[in-house]
Structure formats: C-alpha cells, structure tokens
Design brief:
Helix content is 71%, strand content 0%. It has eight helices and no strands. It is elongated, with a radius of gyration of 20 Å. It has 153 residues and is mostly helical. The chain has one domain.
Length: 153
C-alpha cells in the first residue's frame, strides 16, 4: 500500500532520527516560549525559508542529473545512465517516500513540510495569533480577521 504524503517520509526514516527531529522542535519551542514578538517573527521568517526534504531531494536530483547529462555530452555517453537512475529514484520517492539520499538528508536534520509547519504554527500560537479562537470554532469577526492577517505573514 502507498503511504499518505504526510506519512511517507517519516515511515521510511529511522525512528531515532524522527525522535531527534521531534526533540529539536521541542527545544526550539522551549527556547522561544518566553521570547519577544520580534524574536518569534524572525524565527517564523527563518522557517518560511527552510527547505523541506522534498525541495532538498529535488535540488539534489537536478544537480546530479545535470552533471550526469553534461558528462554524457562531453565525456562519454554512458554517463547518461546517471540521469536515468536519478529519475528512477525520484519516482521511487514519489511513490514510496524513500530514495537513497533521503536517509542522509534526514540524519542531517532536513525536515518534512509537516514538521516545519508544526513548529511554525506552535510559534504562532505562542505569539498569541490564535487567541480568541475557541475549540468549538466560535469567535467574533475581529478575531477571524486577525487570524487571517497573521496567516498571511
């Protein structure tokens, strides 16, 4: 069975690596828990620029495939196998959520978009962006407008 988009990378990552990533998120949140709003704003901006595992794998594949194609054109056509193999790895990743470079990037701390979003929205909650939003979903129009503006930041 093909795992969901959100589950596929963590399912194919060693559990101790997933745990390290979760612990780092918790440490980051603890660090920013009492921080000033502008400090949290800077961290949110950093998170907006952070590359997730998908973007990292795509960039890596593009570079390796490009080098392989260049070598095939300039040196020996057998190097054309490199882009073919890279394409196969990308397809495997799209379907299964795993490809050979993924464990390396995960050990280096490259996170999924869901992991980045978890920290992002927890920081927004710490900043108070969601005050006035109740569990039942009832809130006044001013609160809805404020939350909408904060989400656009």
């Amino acid at each position: 069975m093909i795992p969901s988009t959100v589950e596929r990378v963590p399912l194919h990552t060693a559990e101790h690596v997933n745990e390290q990533i979760r612990e780092q998120i918790e440490k980051n949140l603890a660090h920013y828990a009492g921080a000033a709003e502008d400090t949290i704003d800077r961290r949110l901006a950093e998170l907006n620029r952070e590359w997730d595992i998908e973007r990292t794998l795509e960039a890596n594949a593009a570079v390796v495939a490009g080098v392989g194609a260049g070598l095939a054109l300039m040196i020996d056509r057998r190097f054309a196998l490199i882009p073919l193999v890279v394409g196969g790895f990308l397809l495997q990743h799209a379907i299964q959520g795993w490809c050979p470079p993924m464990p390396v990037f995960r050990r280096l701390g490259v996170r999924t978009s869901a992991e980045i979003d978890a920290e992002y929205y927890a920081l927004k909650a710490l900043r108070g962006d969601f005050e006035g939003v109740t569990a039942s979903g009832q809130q006044d129009a001013a609160t809805v407008k404020q939350v909408a503006e904060n989400v656009r930041r």
